[in-house]
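Run: sequence + S-adenosylmethionine -> complex structure.
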Amino acid sequence: MGTLYVVATPIGNLEDISYRAVRILGSVNLIACEDTRVTKRLLDNYQITTPTVSYHQHSASGKIDFLISKLKSGQAVALVSDAGTPGISDPGGLLVRAAVIEGIKVETVPGPSAVVAALAISGLPTDRFLFLGFLPHKKGRETLIKEMVASKQAVVFYESVHRIAKALEQLQTAGLKREMLVCRELTKKFESVYRGLPEEILKQLTPENTKGEFVVIIGK
Ligand code: SAM
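>> structure
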């Protein structure tokens, strides 16, 4: 049986990768990645020539069977996502689950994850936090917003460029009066952090600075 290595990769800055991750990516037989073009940029940067295969949320279940058969035949496979730690709000978890069920050894190669990167610079109490991943777009969204406002612990979620302003407006309407943080494009050229109540952050957002990827934290 081969080993499935779950390898964390940078969330922006290509230097944010461990020595071990580079060694493993360069030595496995195959790398399963969400988008082969995104991963190729990383691999080229470290002169890694390991073959890649795409594995993403729209992949047919046959793709998991294919990767499991490679592992069963003794090959070492690395799993990466477009950014950060596979399985944290991306499809990596399904392959890991299948490997666990098949009794295949799964090893973690830890590193960046946007949720932890944001918490680390929050300056807010982070001894306990509730991570919600992506909020639902429609059904259940309002209920979750109300739960966040009532929550006694810090809450963290991922948000896309399309809904960041909407999320802040909904939190404001629901009466959120705790300090929040909106982290944009962490480790990238346009990294920025906005702090305050939802209405204060909304005032700082313009069409230019709402492009990119976001992590939102609500203090406790
Ligand atoms: N597996 C990844 C991780 O460990 O962070 C998360 C994958 S999820 C599909 C992508 C979301 O993570 C983005 O929509 C954004 O909310 C957040 N994200 C990823 N990179 C980010 C960055 N550099 N700055 C801010 N948020 C980021």
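>> summary
The mean pLDDT is 95. The domain at 3-109 is CATH 3.40.1010.10 (Cobalt-precorrin-4 Transmethylase; domain 1).
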